[in-house]
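During the reporting period the student researcher (J.K.) took over the structure-prediction task from the postdoctoral fellow and processed the backlog of single-chain submissions. One of the processed entries is reproduced below for the supervisory committee.
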Amino acid sequence: MRRAPRSRATHRAPIGGSEAAQVAAVPLGTVLAVLGVLGFSLKAILIKLAYRWAPPDPITLLALRMLYAAPFFMLMAWWSGRSRTGVRGATRARVPLTRRDAVMITALGFIGYYIASWLDFLGLQYVTASLERLVLFLYPTIVVVLSALFLRERITRSAVVALVLSYAGIALAVWHDIRITGEPREIVLGTLLVFASALGYAVYLVGAGGIIARLGSSRFITFAMLSSTVFIVLHFLATRPLSALAVPWSVQWLAFAMALLCTVLPTWMTAESIRLIGASTASLVGSLGPIFTIGLGAVMLGEPVNLLQLVGAALVLGGVMVVSRRPLSRPTPRAAGNAIPRDAV
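J.K. obtained the following structure tokens:
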């Protein structure tokens, strides 16, 4: 009797629990990353709306934003300090916060979230939301230059080309706004203020690499945000009366939306997306930020969009992506930048 031919079907090994969890985490992590970027992109739009509706001064608007956000960051700081299980099933014990950590967090919060945010709010009085987002997006290129100057990192030829492309793109975007508004002095002033904000954020990243590796990005960011809130409130109290906080309800709601939708939730969603899909992938999704802001600015603020601006934006995005994706031989500020939500200023 002739035997039946053996089946040649390939038998696949079942996916383990931890591997299945990683696969399942990718869609959720990607959605969280996109929503986080969208939230950060909305911030400049809400600031511009507040300046249009009932113009508060920048420090008052910034103080309202951080006062509304502070209780949420306190909760996040408590939660991030607990032991937790990651996607791969490993339990991470709580790392104690030392006095040196507290000093570093306070200093970095002062530079990265107080000074940088204040300069950004000042700059948005003069430039469009679209230009502000493109200029802020330059911070990885500034990190590269600072790392070469102070950490002796080598700048490769591809990085030089990327820097040239990025700043050529900003020149086109600035020229676009000057042509539209006819106010070259205001546009240049606003651009310089926002660039100073990006510089402050880059300095923050250069100093944050080691402490982020020790404490984790989520825990570090919440403490840095809380320390910056103290400086912002002190700045407000030193320069404004308490009555200045009594702005119209329309601005109060914008400040609350800015705190919740553009600060707290995007910070949490981006930190979670980094945990689920990794810093490199989440950073790549972060490149959608300027695109979202250009679209939202056109729809919600009526900001004009034309080919010159889009070419400038494409050059900036291309240059920054090349700089951000360079291979790393050791932990650097650029790696720290991938672990921190973009546009969190």
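The committee noted the following: The beta strands are 84-85, 91-92.
J.K. will present the remaining backlog at the next meeting.
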